[in-house]
TrEMBL record:
It is found in: Cell outer membrane. It holds the Pfam family Plug. Residues 65-171 form the TonB-dependent receptor plug domain. Its main location: membrane. The lineage of its organism: Bacteria, Pseudomonadati, Pseudomonadota, Gammaproteobacteria, Enterobacterales. This is TonB-dependent receptor. CDD domains: ligand_gated_channel. It comes from Salmonella enterica subsp. enterica serovar Aqua. It comes from the Bacteria. It is a multi-pass membrane protein. GO terms for cellular component: cell outer membrane. Keywords: Cell outer membrane, Ion transport, Iron, Iron transport, Membrane, Receptor, TonB box, Transmembrane, Transmembrane beta strand, Transport.
Length: 683
């Protein structure tokens, strides 16, 4: 006990100057901390585990993870690699109340967070993805490589006060590694099931020491499919993709940091993971070959400058383009009777400018954001009677002003006030009709009250509002392309979180209730014609918890759970009454548990991830059952440069097909078990 008290006193003495307020709190509550250690009975003579402070930028300013008054999960780049997390869907399974809709198509991944979902034809998602400050506003292109990533932050709950439209359910923030004076190179090759081969690279090098640096990252992936096409005797769903990213960073002095980034993503896939609901599993007989030729690219300029006054400036200018190009058989028969084809070009030009600083003990932020969107959309639907192609252009613009003020009230209490006023305009230009436009103005407030009841232990209450952008349904030509309004969410949340370093435990628990108004849903607007309308209201409530616990120097465990109940309060679709039904694609339960063992010269992971059952339609007629996936991986460093790794995903070969997709006509197949090995070289 004396040794541990001495360690606490020494740690307190060497606290950085910018943590003086925290230091005062430590002094005030030191006796309580000692008492908690004695009561725990878990004191140990040696320190172990990852008790380090985690810094996040959830509120667009740097904060310790435990100080953020909201629900947030973080993953470092090392964690992603060690847990073999290669894509966003795998990452979501380790995050409470976060999943993706089952589409079976690369590059098209509608997110589901706290029961909030969106439709494919809405061209706006229920969660915002932000990569190095650049937003992705639609479900198309909601995918990003995790090669060369510094960290990922998953914010749950409405975030529109700082992030604007389409952050009604949360924000997925991805931060890539920045090059600096330290040269680095990480190169690995991977072989796996179904002739899978992957090559990845993450490298950086200074061009001029302390001034100019360059970094590159990317990967090439190729793998045979698992759906047998009996018509031509081949695999229908082969996968092939490559992505790359480059950054040039310039630091002319110790106060300026300028980065020019470029990224590119390209798919050369076969068909979607689709099949007939009545055919044998993993078999089709498609006379119409399916393919996915989608690609995207982003160019951005990121400027940061710190003035002598203590004020910081941040400017992010970006241009993104995503080309969603896909053809898919939808009856899986030799005759070419039914198929669908998309040819979309989604373009967005955005600019964000913000200032942040401190006023005595308070911290503030103010900013302005503007964007311009141009979407050219062509959709073809083939039936035995006709081929119908709809061509439209959607053009939109946004202008918003946002700000936040964090005010300490006492050593224990603090108050955060934030808000955003946003003006959105959208215009549809159909090829076969006259143009129409709509305007909306939204105010999204945020209020949170935080109580630090012990050092690094926080309790918070918050109220926030969020919204998903309104628009036009570009494919409802028979009813003259009706408009729909923004979907609005009001959220009430309370939570407790903290880091108990002496017993090596990091935890968080949150409970929330959300009221959803003007819900964007599909509705029959004419006989045989559906369109997106604001025809429903709903509520969502839930409980989330996560923990990380280090048992000793070798063993650690982590776990998450998300309980959610999202139900329609009122939803009428013609003669159909969906009151009380579940929102499609929203699971009531998600959970994850992981175990990790670190030896002196190797490590191993095992995790069990579970996603509850979902319905695929508002009538709750078609369903995908709950499932659990067991994943395992291990790594052995041969020397300081070379590491050998092996992994097994879906060890038990669990089937979790979505039967009844596309109004009961399609099964979206789940991938089978996958085994693989990887060789990594690093210096």
């Amino acid at each position: 006990m004396k040794v541990q008290l001495a360690l606490l006193i020494v740690a307190e003495a060497f606290m950085p100057g910018n943590e003086r307020m925290e230091n005062n709190i430590v002094k005030k509550h030191f006796s309580y901390k000692v008492a908690s250690l004695v009561l725990s009975g878990l004191l140990c003579p040696l320190c172990y585990g990852d008790d380090s402070v985690i810094i996040v930028t959830a509120d667009k300013t740097e904060q310790r993870l435990e100080d953020v008054p909201g629900s947030i999960s973080t993953f470092s780049g090392d964690e992603l690699e060690r847990q073999n997390i290669e894509d966003l869907e795998t990452l979501a399974r380790k995050t409470p109340s976060f999943s993706f809709q089952s589409t079976g198509q690369s590059g098209f991944n509608p997110p589901v967070v706290r029961g909030l979902t969106s439709y494919a034809t809405a061209f706006s998602s229920s969660m915002l993805m932000v990569v190095d400050g650049v937003p992705t506003l639609a479900n198309q292109g909601f995918e990003n490589s995790l090669v060369g990533v510094e960290r990922v932050e998953v914010l749950r709950g409405p975030q529109s006060a700082l992030y604007g439209k389409n952050a009604e359910g949360g924000v997925l923030n991805i931060y890539t590694r920045q090059p600096d004076n330290a040269p680095r190179m990480h190169l690995d090759g991977e072989l796996g099931s179904r002739n899978k081969h992957v090559v990845r690279l993450d490298a950086a090098h200074p061009l001029i020491e302390d001034t100019l640096y360059i970094g590159v990252a990317g990967q090439f992936r190729e793998q045979d499919g698992f759906i047998h096409d009996r018509y031509n005797g081949s695999w229908a769903d082969d996968r092939k993709s490559y992505d790359g990213r480059a950054v040039i960073r310039w630091t002319p002095d110790d106060k300026s940091d300028i980065s020019l980034r470029y990224s590119h993503l390209n798919y050369r896939d076969g068909a979607s993971l689709w099949g007939s609901v009545s055919a044998p599993r993993y078999e089709v007989s498609s006379g119409t070959p399916g393919w996915n030729r989608s690609e995207g690219e982003t160019v951005s300029l990121d400027i940061a400058h710190h003035f002598d006054s203590g004020i910081s400036l941040r400017s992010i200018t970006a241009k993104t383009d995503y080309y969603d190009k896909l053809k898919q058989d939808s009856d899986f028969m030799p005759a070419e009777r039914f198929f669908m084809q998309r040819d979309y070009h989604l373009s967005n030009l955005s600019q964000e400018l913000r200032l942040s600083g401190e006023q005595e003990e308070a911290r503030w932020l103010i900013g302005i954001y503007a964007d311009k969107t141009d979407n050219d959309l062509s959709f073809t639907n083939k039936t035995p009677l006709k081929v119908k192609t709809t061509n439209s252009a959607l053009e939109g613009s946004s202008l918003s002003l946002f700000g936040q003020w964090l005010q300490p009230i006492t050593d224990e209490w603090s108050l955060t006030l934030g808000g955003r006023i946003e003006h959105d305009q959208i215009e549809i230009k159909p090829k076969d009709s006259s143009a129409k436009s709509q305007r909306w103005q939204q105010f999204s407030p945020k209020v949170s009250l935080q109580y630090r009841w012990m050092p690094e232990q926080n309790l918070y209450l918050s109220y926030s509002e969020g919204f998903r952008a309104g628009g036009y349904d570009p494919f409802a030509s028979t009813v003259n392309y009706p408009a729909y309004s923004p979907e609005k969410v009001r959220s009430y949340e309370t939570g407790i979180k903290g880091l108990i370093a002496p017993i090596h435990l990091r935890y968080s628990v949150a409970a929330y209730y959300m009221q959803i108004n003007d819900m964007q849903v599909q509705q029959f607007v004419a006989p045989g014609v559906t369109s997106i309308t604001n025809a429903a209201t709903a509520h969502s409530s839930g409980l989330e918890a996560s923990l990380e616990y280090w048992l000793n120097e070798q063993w650690s465990v982590d776990g998450t759970i998300g309980l959610n109940r999202t139900r329609f309060e009122r939803y009428r679709d013609g003669n159909n009454d969906y009151d009380g039904n579940k929102n499609p694609y929203a699971p009531d339960l998600t959970w994850h548990i992981g175990v990790r063992y670190d030896a002196d010269n190797w490590y191993a992971n095992a995790s069990l991830d579970s996603v509850g059952s979902i319905y695929l339609d508002p009538a709750n007629k078609y369903r995908r059952g709950s499932y659990q996936l067991l994943n395992m991986s291990a790594s052995y460093p041969v020397n300081q440069h070379i590491t050998l790794s092996a992994y097994a995903q879906n060890v038990t070969n669990k089937h979790y097909d979505a039967v009844g997709f596309m109004n009961g006509n399609v099964t979206v197949y789940s991938p089978p078990r996958e085994l693989g090995m990887r060789v990594s070289y690093e210096f």
